Request: fold
Amino acid sequence: ALELVDFKNALEQFQDLVEKMIIQNTKENSGLYTTDGDKIDYDKFSSTTRTLFGPAVKDQNIQTFFRKIMSNPDERPEWPEIFGCFKEERNDMSSPSKESMILLVSEKQQITHSVVKRKDVIKGIVKVPLQHLTITASQRGVLTVFNKQGKSFFSYSFYFHQDTAWITGCTYLPNLKYVVAVTESTIILWDYKSKDSKSNGFVIKPMKNCLLCVCTVTVADNLAKDTILMGDDKGYVYLLTITSDDFIMKQSKAGKESQFKVLDSESFDIPKRKLHDDWVGKIKYFSALKRFGSCSTDSTNSFVLDDIKRLEDQLPVKEFSVPKGVNAFTYCGKAKVIVTGG
Reply:
């Protein structure tokens, strides 16, 4: 509540500053003189804005806001633009709800820890709210777990070396407490909590097709097992359930890979079903709907939304066609809508 009050006071002072600038600009355009002591130039506007809002504002947004005021004071910018938030033009005159006008700048936080080197990119970011974890996986094999304790972040990084295969996605197993990453031909299970976390994990291989995405199926039970969904470059979606017993019973005698124990993929029951005629770009499980979604650039079977049981039978699935396919999607429980991007 105190943060909201402070923000409200800061916002009122900022709007007063903008009004003074507009009056000043109008007088100058009319030929009226403004004394140097009262004049609000860019440096004064920038320093005052930073004093009010702190690091929540960026130089680029301050410059853009100042330029808009000075170039056309009759059409003043909206205050959210100082934080880089821009509203779209709307034809209707309906007033926005109070909730849509709230901007919680205090929730913004930045992790400055560098987890990748040059010529490497982040391929997956997963947030685990219950564990206060944020997990990242880089293309070249750097797995990092950020553990938030208070206002600080502690990280545990591990480099999974592979000769040719790149990591394409990651997720988290809430029951087994493992980090999962998929490559073009393997599934990596990393026990980041182990004292020797750099060598305590498992690799499931080989996978026949190239794995492109992965997600966790969240359920209400607390059993010692977790289920993941994966999509590949041939349009297949896989269902894999992993238990703690698998780590003991299914170890292979094959050579080590980054000192991880190897599990033979043939020893697992991995139902799969071809749902798309092109790459599976993204897969996600919605616990509120008890359904999974998968998308592809396939124009015929662009987006599938159905029960995971459909991966084990041949019953028809609920699918939607979008020209040129779907690249991304998400679900909003409050609005009860699914949005896709092509």
